[in-house]
Amino acid sequence: MEIKVVKKVLGVNDAIAEDIRKLLKQKNIFMFNMMSSPGAGKTLILQKSVAALKKDLRIGIIVGDICTTRDSERLAETGVPVVQINTEPFGGDCHLGANLISSALAELDLDKLDMVIVENVGNLVCPAEFEIGEDRKVVVLSLPEGEDKPLKYPLMFRVAHAAIVNKLDLEPHLDLDRKTFADNIRKIHPAITLFEMSAKTGQGFEPWIKWLKKEAKAKSGAGKN
Ligand SMILES: Nc1nc2c(ncn2[C@@H]2O[C@H](COP(=O)(O)OP(=O)(O)OP(=O)(O)O)[C@@H](O)[C@H]2O)c(=O)[nH]1
Ligand SMILES: [Mg+2]
Fold it and tell me: What topology does CATH give the domain 2-220?
């Protein structure tokens, strides 16, 4: 009986995700879902990514957190529209479900956007299980978390199209080998697109921005007027 309930819940989520996918296709909008453990650097990477992309692409952001509007305040400084979702009133979910994304998309003027960025709730497990109608899933892993995380939390790395190894600037202070991070990610997902960067210093940021531009162009064509 319980298994039936679980299937039903995921079934409903997938159906809403499919509707979102159709809507975004119709509107020529590229949407990506950024996920990581708490504090890996999602918001800082996105602040700098939006700054780099906003002259070419019209961007809207959806930010998920259990509590607070701290990340949406940081991202709103880029000048693009931001919608905050707090999951606490809905039971404090550790991920964004397609229903919440659907409500957040209704708050954005989709006819005036080329790209929607979703910053998911900081968690390396649950967000990987929920489709939200996105074109790409991106996982961020930062050096201080340790090189074994892809092996211990494989689903996230299996479902992600791209992975970012962040906080390279901290390598001299840590007793670890940066190469092992990439090796372990590739053990789980050999064909994943991999970026290594420091969002703080900007090292390695350019290939990530190029990839985002390419992916967005593939989806939305030359953009809208
Ligand atoms: N040294 C260093 N610090 C970084 C880097 N990227 C992010 N940080 C810092 O790491 C901390 C967490 O970064 P956030 O961008 O808030 O991380 P997040 O993944 O959005 O966190 P949650 O939304 O809470 O899950 C902040 O103090 C950032 O300034 C980096 O490349 N190097
Ligand atoms: Mg954040």
Answer: Rossmann fold (3.40.50)
